[in-house]
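Thread title: Can someone regenerate the structure for this chain?

I was given the following input by a collaborator and told the matching C-alpha cells would be attached. They weren't. Posting the sequence so someone can regenerate them.
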Amino acid sequence: MFFKNLVNGKEPKNCPDNDGHNVDSIDALTVAIPVVLQYAEEDREVRNAKVIESIKVLRGIKSVEPYAIIMSDMIVDLLNGKDLQTACQEAATKIGMGDLKSMVESSRSDPMVACYIDSSFPAMLFIVYKYAGSVEKAILASANAGGENVARGSILGTLVGAAHGMSQFPEWTNGLYEKDKIMAEID
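Best answer:
Regenerated them for you:
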C-alpha cells in the first residue's frame, strides 16, 4: 500500500496506509529488529520510540505497536542474559496467553497460523519457548509448522540468537561466500 500510494503521487510521509486487514501482521516487526539492536543500549523509552517510528515508515497501524514493544524488550533482555523461556513467558503473560509450559505440554503439534499479529506472535512465542534449548530445533520447527513462517522465523531467529549468541550457529556459517565479512559485521 505504501508503494501504491507513492506511485500514485503521494508524498512519502503520507504513504503509510492500513486497509484494516493486510498490514496488521507479524512481518511489520521485522523492520524493527535492526532498530532494536542499534538502540539496545539506549534508554528503553528512546529505543521503543525508534522501534515504533521504524514501523510507521511503511505502515499506518496501531495494533502491532504493543507487540513491537514486547519484542524490543525481549531482545534487549536476552542480550543482557535473561533466560529465553522466562522472556517468552513474560511476553505471553503481557498478551494474555497464559502458561506456556502447560500449553507446550498439552499440545501435540506446533501451531500453524497465518500472518496476522494476534495469532502469529503467540505462535512464535510458543515455538521459541518449546525449543528454547536448541537454535536448530526452534528454526526448523517454525519452518516446518507452515503458515506464515518467514517473518516469524526472522523474529524467532533474532530471539534465539540473542539468547544463545553465535555458539549454536557455527556450522551454519560454513560455506558462506563472504563469511569473514559477515562474521565481522556480526561482531
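The chain has eleven helices and no strands.
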